[in-house]
Amino acid sequence: MASVTSTNLIEPSIPTGLAVQEVPPLENGDILTRPEFERRYEAMPHVKKAELIEGVVYMPSPVRHEGHGRQHFTLNWWFGGYIAATPGVEASDNATVRLDLDNEPQPDVLLRITDSGQSLVDAEGFLNGPPELVAEVASSSVAYDLHQKLHTYRRHGVREYLVWRTQEHALDWFVLREGRYERLPLAEGGIYKSECFPGLWLDAAALLRNDLATVLKVLGEGLASPEHQEFIQRLDQKTTIPSTAK
After folding, report:
1. Which end of the chain is more exposed for a tag (fewer CB within 10 A), N or C?
2. What is the pTM for the complete model shown?
3. Which CATH number does the domain housing residue 140 bear?
């Protein structure tokens, strides 16, 4: 019997005309469903930020230190001081938020109530539902943060929305009342006082001039206020915080 050598073996035929289907890249302005948006986003690990707002893909330009990076860090620092003194409240930076099948924003910073709030962390680690407070750093009043995203956050019940307009050296703080965003009025001394997160106080003028010592001082006064202590007690009792999104 003749021995079998490699020259006697027949290689399996490889069908022609078949190609591995590549996941299309995300492109600014694409019209996608949320599942397709997530599929393309996950296939592009080098992309650090992309958002789906009303079914449209938004991919921001590279981030500058002045005009976004510094201001973003300052908001993180301010929120960090608050959550350190407020058990039951969490902050997150650039976390994807699943709102519905057409909207998956990635807010610069957010605050959420953990046990009795509006959002939940799903099995994949994503936030589902609106956080109580969202903060965005925008270049100016023409940015989509104050148009498409503002309407999306309002419609989904984000109770407070803060936008830092860096080119215009201005701050907008909106609060949701009866389904509409109204501007949060300044309290005595030019201080913003969050309605959703008692004790979260902000000297906006100090923030805009980069006077972080004053920002910290005013936050400390808010954390020492009776309303902040009452808020901590309510959170400790896991009392559902009434929503203004009606």
Report:
1. N
2. 0.84
3. 3.90.1570.10
